[in-house]
Design goal:
The structure holds 3 protein chains of 3 kinds. By secondary structure, chain A is mostly helical. Helices cover 69% and strands 0% of the residues of chain A. Chain A contains 12 helices and no strands. Chain A is globular, with a radius of gyration of 24 Å. Chain B is an all-alpha fold. Chain B has 13 helices and no strands. Chain C has helices at 2-5, 71-78, 105-111, 133-145, 149-162, 168-171, 181-193, 211-228, 239-245, 263-268, 273-280; strands at residues 27-37, 46-56, 60-64, 87-95, 98-99, 116-119, 199-203, 231-236, 248-253, 256-262, 334-335, 338-341, 344-346, 355-356. The longest helix of chain C is centred in the middle third of the chain and has 18 residues, at 211-228. Chain C is globular and about 65 Å long. Classes of the chains: A mainly alpha, B mainly alpha, C alpha/beta. At the A-B interface, helix 5, helix 6, helix 10 and helix 12 of A face helix 1, helix 2, helix 6, helix 7 and helix 10 of B.
Chain lengths: 315, 322, 360
């Protein structure tokens, strides 16, 4: 607040030039660029994205290549050939960490797409309609907030693993990973729905919406052209946080040994190598650091987005 | 009097919620297949006849709806059935293992709260200062450090590298530390509690700070200062109380999160708690334990929410009881 | 009861013969060349620049100015309660012969609420929402007068009656959200008067209220002033309100004093161009004004040209950018106090003030 009031404008003799009208996104970006945490988050996220996109082309070893088992042997400490050493099963740790990035991003983006879709629909409908619809939908949302999602997901994954044996589903590629993504999504929409509802409630009675209604805009117009775009900035923050949360949830599932055996995931790397933490710490710590960087990146990004779109929420 | 009406209403709602959550868990798990059939699928050499007998023994030979009602009526009488793996009543398993979970989670939340208040208030009073920045940065980092990975780091540093603290279990199997089972148990608690505390502290501190910053800017705090109330009282009694209220909701969520992720955190330390019991039950497809433990975890979550609501009413006069 | 009636002992009268501007009357408060700055401290941007005014014992000083003119900051500075990071970087605040600006927070805490008290703008926000009003006000008595609870509550109830709260006994156990805005402001006024202070600072105490309630609260202030005999600094942007409540007026613009003087003199013969513009822009019921220049009706005069807020904090007279009489030197030289009548001071180069180039 103090910044604004005391910044001395250079005295200009000409009449003040009219500043171009800036959209909510451009203004947001300018504030975001000034947020140190936000920029650091963006850099970390871009790092993870770059690893996911470029990584598979530059990774020294194939993720399924167990040949290092013979040459430096399993649990070999970092060397020039294996910058992060080899793990318990003779894989090159660096390559597996790199190949874990696309998996993590697929989980984060996939789960949050599902969660956003459900959350915005439920929350938007509740907030826009209000009344009994709102009451019923919000109780439904409360219900999803208290379900111990982790506990349910583990049980479902485990039982599903048994149930698909000898069925056509067995050959579906990445079935387990798909189900994990779906379940994380299905169990993480409640906060998004709450936020959407709050935003819709706030916006639907504002004057510009009233004005749109007065000039005869349809409900669809009002919802998608007037309310939703204005609710997006707040939603972007919570979705960014959610991506980090989904990556973390998948890592925990993998760490407990319920991950997809066909996919390379950081959580699973931890699961396979945790027993050897004492002898080959690099094999456990490297994927752990990768999870940390990814979650940190998305959390900082969300922090910067809060600075950008909702500066009053902090300070 | 109104408080009792309010309490009853909240409790009825909690009971309905519990009913819904248990149904969701039950049908989600059962929709995949008959648990006994799935379990036996992994055991070689099981004949159809044995499976049928097993189903009858565990009451799983009815259609799902009947089974759910049966299971519910038993749970209402606190009968969770018998563990297939342990061959013990699930109820007593949950009590023994659940106690171990509370033993690390309760201290973790209390210590975290104390630290969060101390650092959050200090940072808020010196907003934008170097110490504020240090608190914020540490908390932001801590918030993103997954609890289980932190646990792994703690074990690596304090057990494997320094050899100061035990890396697994709740007590030594043979020689208790210093010949005292109590000290031995406390010694084993240090790392798990440290991990959970760190996990809780980060977010609580950030929240405490931002709430406190808001409250300290409010007119009533200025008015109290202008009335000559000593600064210490203004901050630690009046402002703290006001800043604490919005934290309650989050505190409830945090306890829920901690309970919900107990399977992971307890696996890191091989801690014999509810989460660990749950994980081993899932690995071994111990169906009665899976159902019982998940119901109890859900029950504890719902109780936390209920408790949060009640505390709100008790400390915030603005909330009407309607 | 008894302590309410006893008059406060007055400090020894100080005769300041150096100053030709202040008449030899006892000043309870003398703000002298007060400066308030926000960081960075080396930048020449001062939110309050060389503000001086005096409040005599038993009188009401009205401080008038538009929002952002620094009236609220000046009154918070008297309590030594500037919101960080703002700081007093110069000048003195003499109260009863002591410099408040030089006092420690501990010493100030003993004065606040007891000798100095404040009524805030928004009664809705200035009471602790989590405590009953009885408990909040009782706590102040407990701190300052070491009163036991029951006695403190009795005293609070007595003051509630004095400020016109109906059924004061049962109000004690009410929470602020159970009261109307006007009632809350009465509670705030009672809070300010609890320890029979020598000076009450009222920061726009009627602005947040309905017009009818405003009138009641102003009546109450007048009544209480007569009854308690305290001095008052009444901060407002409303010329109508000062006309009613103040004895003397200080007009401020962007952190500088424009003029100070007796209420009647200022309303009759406004000297500073800003005061003149301000008074001229007050609508009068006996005139008809044109909306956007239609017809032959007269236009409501306004204070000319809005200026970017930052620019007006530069050197020189800060009103220069909007002043119809501004000369080139006005934006360079800071006008000093000039006595134009007994007890009347104006800061304007065009009214005989000396100009000083820089204040560093």
């Amino acid at each position: 607040m103090s910044d604004q009031t005391i910044t001395a404008h250079p005295p200009s003799s000409a009449k003040p030039a009219r500043r171009p009208v800036k959209g909510i996104w451009r203004q947001g970006w300018q504030r975001f660029a000034r947020s140190r945490t936000g920029m650091l988050g963006l850099i970390l996220v871009l790092l993870v994205v770059a690893t996911a996109v470029v990584g598979p082309f530059v990774a020294p070893f194939d993720p399924q290549d167990q040949s290092p088992m013979i040459d430096p042997g399993a649990k070999a400490p970092p060397s020039w050939v294996h910058p992060l050493g080899t793990d318990r099963m003779g894989y090159d740790v660096a390559s597996r960490v790199i190949y874990g990035a696309p998996t993590a991003l697929a989980v984060g983006l996939g789960a949050m797409s599902i969660a956003s879709l459900i959350g915005v629909l439920v929350g938007g409908f509740a907030g826009y309609r209000g009344g009994t619809t709102d009451e019923v939908l919000m109780r439904f949302t409360d219900f999803f907030l208290v379900i111990p999602m982790f506990v349910v997901i583990l049980a479902v994954i485990r039982l599903l693993g048994v149930a698909v044996v000898n069925t056509p589903f067995e050959s579906v590629p990445y079935l387990n990973l798909g189900v994990i993504i779906l379940l994380i999504g299905v169990f993480s929409w409640a906060p998004i729905a709450r936020m959407t509802r709050a935003e819709f409630l706030r916006l639907k009675n504002q004057e510009f919406v009233e004005a749109a209604r007065c000039i005869g805009a349809t409900s669809g117009d009002i919802l998608f052209r007037h309310i939703l775009p204005n609710a997006l900035p707040s939603l972007v923050v919570i979705v960014a946080l959610g991506i980090g949360g989904a990556v973390l949830a998948e890592a925990m599932i993998g760490f407990l040994g319920f991950g997809d055996p066909a996919a390379v995931s950081w959580g699973q790397l931890l699961y396979f190598n945790y027993e050897a933490l004492k002898v080959a710490p690099w094999a456990s710590l490297s994927p752990g650091v990768a999870i940390f960087i990814t979650v940190l990146g998305f959390n900082l990004l969300a922090d910067g987005l809060t600075d950008a779109f909702n500066p009053r929420a902090k300070r | 009097m109104r408080i009792f009406v309010f309490l009853t209403r909240r409790m009825i709602f909690a009971a309905l919620l519990m009913l819904g959550v248990s149904a969701a868990i039950f049908f989600l798990v059962n929709s995949i297949g008959n648990p006994i059939e799935l379990m036996m699928a992994e055991t070689p050499g099981m004949t159809g006849e044995v499976i049928d007998r097993m189903k009858a023994y565990y009451g799983l030979d009815h259609p799902p709806m009947t089974r759910y009602l049966l299971w519910l009526s038993r749970i209402a009488q606190l009968d969770f059935g018998t563990s297939i793996v342990y061959n013990q009543p699930v109820g007593s398993l949950i009590v023994t293992w659940g106690w171990q979970t509370l033993k690390i989670q309760l201290p973790a939340i209390l210590i975290a709260l104390a630290i969060a208040i101390l650092f959050g208030v200090t940072a808020a009073r010196r907003q934008h200062s170097r110490s504020d920045f240090a608190v914020m940065a540490t908390a932001l980092l801590g918030q993103s450090l997954p609890a289980f990975f932190l646990g792994i780091l703690l074990i690596f540093i304090f057990s494997y590298s320094l050899d100061w603290l035990p890396s697994y279990g709740a007590y030594s199997t043979r020689n208790p530390l210093w010949g005292s089972p109590t000290l031995d148990a406390l010694w084993h608690m240090v790392l798990p509690v440290a991990m959970l505390t760190f996990f809780n502290t980060a977010t609580l501190t950030l929240l405490m700070r931002s709430n406190m910053v808001d409250v300290l800017k409010s007119d009533f705090i200025a008015a109290m200062r202008a009335s000559g109330i000593p600064e210490r009282r203004v901050i630690y009694v009046h402002a703290l109380r006001a800043a604490f209220i919005p934290m309650l909701t989050y505190l409830g969520l945090l306890i829920g999160l901690m309970l919900g992720t107990a399977p992971v955190t307890e696996s890191v330390f091989t801690w014999p708690g509810l989460g660990y019991l749950y994980i081993s039950a899932i690995h071994q497809l111990d169906y009665p334990v899976i159902m019982g433990a998940s119901a109890v975890i859900a029950f504890m979550l719902i109780c936390t929410t209920l408790l949060t609501d009640v505390i709100y009413v008790l400390i915030d006069p603005r909330i009407s009881l309607e | 009861m008894s302590s309410l009636a006893t008059a406060k002992p007055t400090a020894a009268m100080s005769i300041d013969d150096r100053s030709m501007l202040t008449p030899p009357v006892h000043d309870l408060v003398r703000v002298e060349n007060l400066r308030i700055q926000f960081p960075p401290w080396n930048a020449p941007v001062r939110i309050i620049e060389d503000v001086s005014f005096q409040v005599r014992a038993g009188e009401t000083m009205g401080i008038v100015g538009e929002s952002g003119s620094g009236k609220t900051l000046s009154s918070l500075a008297i309590l030594n309660l500037l919101p960080p990071p703002a700081r007093i970087t110069g000048g003195r605040i003499m109260f009863d012969g002591e410099d408040l600006a030089a006092k420690s927070q501990g010493e100030m805490q003993k004065l606040r609420g007891r000798r100095l008290a404040m009524v805030f703008q928004n009664p809705g926000y200035s009471l602790n929402p989590l405590m009953t009003v009885g408990a909040q006000l009782g706590e102040i008595l407990k701190v300052h007068e070491k009163m036991p609870r029951s006695m403190a509550l009795q005293r609070v109830e007595e003051l509630f009656r004095l400020v016109g709260i109906t059924d004061p006994g049962s109000r004690l156990s009410q929470y602020p959200h159970e009261m109307s805005g006007g009632m809350k402001q009465r509670v705030c006024i009672a809070r300010a008067l609890l320890c029979n202070p020598a000076l009450v600072l009222a920061d726009e105490p009627t602005t947040a209220l309905d017009v009818t309630i405003q009138a009641q609260i102003l009546d109450l202030f007048e009544d209480l002033k007569a009854r308690f005999g305290m001095s008052m600094i009444f901060v407002t942007h409303d010329m109508g309100v000062v006309a009613r409540i103040a004895d003397r007026i200080t007009v401020m613009y962007a952190g500088q004093v424009c003029e100070t003087g007796d209420k009647h003199a200022i309303f009759a013969r406004p000297s500073h161009p800003y005061t003149q513009a301000l008074l001229a822009s007050t609508p009068r019921i006996d005139r008809r004004y044109a909306i956007d220049g239609e017809g032959r009706r007269e236009r409501l005069p306004t204070v000319g040209r809005a200026v970017a807020p930052g620019q007006s904090l530069g050197g020189g007279c800060r009103f220069a950018g909007r002043c119809p009489e501004a000369a080139p030197e006005c934006s360079r030289l800071v006008p000093q106090a000039a006595a134009i009548e007994p007890g009347r001071v104006v800061h304007c180069l065009k009214r005989g003030s000396a100009g000083v180039a820089s204040h560093d």
